[in-house]
Amino acid sequence: MQAEIITIGDELLIGQVVDTNSAWMAVKLNEAGIQVKQITSVSDNRDHIIQALNEAQTRADLILITGGIGPTPDDITKKTLAGYFNTRLVFSEKVYQDILELLGKRSIPVNEQNRKQAEVPENALILPNKYGTAPGMWFDLNDKIFVSMPGVPHEMKALMENEVIPRVLKLNDTMVILHRTILTYGTFEARLAEILAGFEKNLPKEVNLAYLPSNGVIRLRLTIAGTDRKSLENILDQETGKLYRIIPHYIFGRDDDTLEKVVGKLLTEYQKTLSVAESCTGGNISKKITSVPGSSGYYIGSVIAYSNRIKEDVLGVNRDTILKYGAVSREVVEKMAKGVRQLYRTDFSLATSGIAGPEGGTVEKPVGTTWIAVSGSETVISKKFNFGSERQRNIERASLAGLNMLRMVLMKNSRV
Fold first, then answer.
1. Judgement on whether residues 155 and 94 belong to the same structural domain of the protein
2. Do 189 and 133 lie in a common domain?
3. Is 350 helix (H, G, I), strand (E, B) or coil?
């Protein structure tokens, strides 16, 4: 079974609201063995909606529609669907009682607009909405399924999980779609594709490989579809194993892992503590680390040494060192790492110093130049990076690069 998602609303097309519904639905549909062929957003316009419906049924068996079924005059989806499916709107006492019960619990009086929401297409299967006043509507036409749901995310999600997915599974109980995502860091996409050229060439024909880069992290997604789940999982296991043998030094995790989660697991496993000194990253690394539940067990604290005075007074960087080499240098960042580790008495520390931009660069040290250091009890390593000219991207890439350096050191020094 193949699906298409149609989101309706002018607010989506002018950028006032970000469409998070489609991404969530696509995940749930894939888990149910349903491939999403296309996602379309259209305005609150009858002709645009009808055109989208006509085109969708040429590509998909299941068309999911969200938005435009609220109580206000600009919500035209329900009337449009009634016309499209050649039916009329009829008053549903059951839907009205659901609305009365829901609004009664919230001490909200029912007005005429709410009452109109109990008018539903006569030939639709009505799906109860426990969290809102607009019910879901299920239509069958030309061996195609159309389902209309509210655009409010928590209402749509409840309808999908409690009504739509269970019904669809009964109709599509044989197909399975599986994804396996391998997370890599430390090289660029073209180089990784070059390394994996032989691997990709010899993939089983039913397996698809996709490269998904973002700020230095490259996700390798293996996808397979079929009817025998166990057999499909075995194939993915075999291909995943090959990747671990070909590029073990680039792989840091799988699926929903992040560098901060992986670093946290290593610190927990080895019972080590961490401190951070941040200049150009401005606390972004510390934010990532503390976003992981349980990070209080290994993360002690940080110093955001944005000015040279803090580098000197708090971290113990010698002023002459800064004057001689510059704040963005191996000598300074290594001293920052040593200083914060000694200050907080931790097993390891991580430090960054760079030129995030868009200003402040020189010929010798252009915008994006960043030094990162990791310090342990017996050693300190540092590395220079050149990220680019975009400030926020530089901050994020420096944060990830630092976490990956720390990961590599932890793996080599697990018994330090």
1. yes
2. no
3. strand
Q: Among candidates 54, 49, 58, which has minimal Cα distance to 81? A: 49
Answer for the pair 66, 149: CB distance below 8 angstroms, yes or no.
yes
Query: Which structural domain range is residue 336 located in?
Result: 259-412
Q: What is the CATH number of the domain that holds 361?
A: 3.90.950.20
Q: Are residues 356 and 394 in the same domain?
A: yes
Pair 34, 151 in one domain: yes
Q: For the domain that residue 221 is a member of, what is the CATH number?
A: 3.30.70.2860
**Per-residue model confidence as pLDDT tens for the chain (416 residues):** 899 999 999 999 999 999 999 999 999 999 888 999 999 999 999 999 999 999 999 999 999 999 988 888 878 999 999 999 999 999 999 999 999 999 999 899 989 888 988 999 999 999 999 999 999 999 999 899 999 999 999 999 999 999 999 999 888 767 788 999 999 999 999 999 999 999 999 999 999 999 999 999 999 999 999 989 999 999 999 999 999 999 999 999 999 999 999 999 999 999 999 999 999 999 999 999 999 999 999 999 999 999 999 999 999 999 999 999 999 999 999 999 999 999 999 999 999 999 999 999 999 999 999 999 999 988 899 999 999 899 999 999 999 999 999 999 999 876 44
Question: What DSSP designation does 162 have?
Answer: I
Final residue of a domain: which of 114, 147, 171? 171
Tokens, residue 115:
């009452």
Q: For the whole model, what pTM was predicted?
A: 0.77
Q: How far apart are CA 291 and CA 295, in angstroms?
A: 8
* Cα distance between residue 360 and residue 94, in whole Å: 66
Both 116 and 95 in one domain: the answer is yes
Residue 128 shares a structural domain with residue 242:
no
Residue whose C-alpha is closest to residue 61's, from 87, 40, 36: 36
Say how many domains are in the chain. 3
- Give the three-state DSSP class for 369: strand
Are 115 and 96 in contact, with CB atoms under 8 Å apart? yes
